[in-house]
Design a protein that fits this description.
single chain, 567 residues, alpha+beta, 5-stranded antiparallel β-sheet, 15% helix
């Protein structure tokens, strides 16, 4: 029997695709895994809300064009696999199944493989798996924005009771606003309020109104205050008494799930906890602390300006809460609900957040003036560095926030490190070079060692030429501030506590941005805090609510740009 010429043509076309090729279309600079439907598992973190697609994406199911992993030996493959010899059998014995793959999915359909997007290929013979765009993960069959974690630390110190004075010298409130319980929150004066506290709560309410519980997971801290027994509350303190630390705090450097004094008294600093599930409405809970209404029965809380400014201790409490309740990979569980965290599901008896690699956690520290700093474990700059980058280390695996483990010596002035690196006394303009090297988590690139408060760019204090890239312009309010991180030599007694670690032992860091309404008087202290926290200093003007609101809007805009799951 003579072979059909049509069959010869079909075989020739099949052999035209050389070993290892694929007829499936691929995105530019893309890498893709091709898998079978049996390998796919739908992913959805407990309580993860579906959010609008990122404006960076072309549609809700968009995958990153530069994030695929190409495997030309599977899916949409019409040719011969690597290592296989060309067919030599009688072409009369061939049929359609010998040259065409079987259909296992509907072309173009999408599902999730973990946090990656799986799209059925054009021939329906397998799925092409790609990363979603940066800041997005696959949920429910499409790429969705990964909700960020926003931690607000609100200054509730007594100085927040100071009256706000406008640039023309007048005050916001023309009449006294100190009569309990209306205080400065009557309809005629609120917004914007009279004091720093009143104006700040007014502006925070406007900024928070723009946030969505589904895309920003929030929680609120204040400086420690405990409930008072007073029967005569005032506008300044309400029913609270300010404290330097939580009740029962004896100075331990780490807490666990069984540290009773911490959890029993945490409500002295934690106003609104992290959401346990998608039904939690934390924004509404936070706004209750800013509505100008307070009562004991029924309980209606309010932020009040009373007490000192214990920034260091408050940041310590924030860090311990984060590693016990917010970043909890590896924590034992039995069900998704037992993780008590909207971002986590229970997998293999352990809480897991598949989007941890690209989920942003940012602390916004709002203050009207810094706490006096020192080189002790609970000092504000030291705690900021611990939360964001890490303190002492044995290797770079102990460091986060883009830092590496470095061993160095620095010059000593009056026996204290001054931030200037050295290897001998001749390297020090004043003082001597330390004889004991220290090992710390530090930025990989040292730079100038100074940063401008206007924009946070590297600067040099002696540069006066505006054309120089290291010029800090005083006309714009800029001050060239020394980077304090080399001088922060304090470490934890227990080395693993030098950095935040989730229950699985892996270190993690958070970024700390400082929103300061104190003006130029405290800018250096606040800049030191922001640098130690691997964040930015955002200056706000309490006498200009519009400018203040713009600063908060920028601070609350969590822009995650990391690709989820990328190594």
């Amino acid at each position: 029997m003579k072979p059909s010429p049509h069959l010869f043509l079909m075989v020739a076309l099949a052999l035209e695709c050389t070993p290892g090729c694929s007829t499936a279309p691929s995105a530019p600079a893309a890498k893709a895994d091709v898998v079978q439907p049996s390998d796919l598992a739908e992913f959805g973190a407990a309580g993860t809300d579906t959010a609008p697609a990122s404006p960076d994406a072309t549609d809700a199911g968009a995958a990153a064009p530069d994030s695929a992993e190409t495997n030309a030996n599977a899916g949409d493959s019409a040719g011969v696999q690597d290592g296989e010899p060309a067919p030599t059998q009688d072409i009369q014995q061939m049929d359609a199944s010998d040259v065409a793959p079987s259909t296992v999915c509907t072309p173009g359909t999408q599902t999730c493989q973990g946090i990656k997007l799986a799209t059925c290929g054009t021939k329906g013979d397998g799925f092409i798996v790609t990363n979603c765009y940066p800041g997005m993960a696959c949920v429910g069959g499409g790429c969705q924005p990964v909700p960020g974690n926003l931690v607000i630390v609100f200054d509730s110190s007594g100085s927040m009771d100071s009256a706000v004075v406008k640039k023309d010298g007048s005050k916001f409130c023309a009449v006294s606003a100190s009569t309990w319980p209306i205080c400065e929150y009557g309809a005629a004066t609120f917004p914007p309020g009279c004091t720093r506290m009143g104006v700040s709560k007014s502006v925070f309410k406007q900024a928070l109104a723009k946030l969505d519980d589904a895309t920003t997971k929030m929680l609120l801290f204040r400086f420690p205050q405990k409930a008072s027994t007073t029967t005569k509350p005032s506008c300044a303190s309400g029913y609270y008494t300010g404290q330097d630390k939580l009740s029962g705090d004896l100075g331990v450097e780490t807490v666990s799930a069984t540290t009773n004094w911490f959890w029993d008294n945490l409500n002295e600093t934690l106003c609104e906890p992290f959401p346990a599930n998608s039904s939690a409405k934390t924004k509404a809970g936070i706004l209750k602390w800013m509505d100008g209404i307070e009562s004991k029965v029924p309980v209606d809380p309010e932020l009040r300006p009373t007490g000192s400014t214990p920034i260091g201790k408050t940041l310590f409490y924030v860090g311990e809460y984060l590693r016990n309740r917010v970043i909890i990979d590896g924590q034992a569980c039995t069900t998704d609900a037992s993780c008590q965290n909207v971002n986590y599901v229970c997998q293999g008896g352990k809480c897991a957040d598949a989007a941890r690699s690209c989920r942003e956690t940012v602390v916004i520290l709002f203050t009207d003036g810094g706490e006096t700093n020192s080189n002790s474990f609970f000092a504000p700059w030291v705690q900021a560095k611990r939360l964001s980058q890490g303190l002492g280390c044995t290797s770079s695996a102990d460091c986060v926030g883009g830092t590496v483990c470095k061993t160095f010596q620095q010059c000593l002035t009056a026996g204290k490190p001054n931030g200037k690196f050295c290897s001998a006394n001749t390297d020090c303009v004043s003082g001597t070079c330390s004889t004991t090297p220290q090992t710390q988590c530090m930025p990989e690139i040292e730079g100038t060692g100074y940063f401008c408060t206007d924009g946070g760019t590297p600067c040099q204090p002696d540069i006066k030429d505006p054309a120089s890239p290291t010029f800090c312009d005083p006309a714009k309010g800029g001050q060239c501030v020394q980077d304090p991180r080399p001088m922060l030599t304090a470490t934890a007694k227990d080395p693993p506590a030098n950095v935040l670690r989730s229950p699985d032992g892996k270190p993690f860091g958070v970024r700390i941005h400082v929103v300061d309404i104190s003006g130029a008087a405290n800018v250096q202290a606040s800049m030191g805090l922001a640098l130690s926290g691997n964040g930015k200093l955002l200056g706000a003007d309490a006498s200009d609510p519009g400018q203040f609101l713009g600063v908060l809007d920028a601070a609350f805009d969590l822009k995650t740009k990391k690709v989820c799951g990328a190594q």
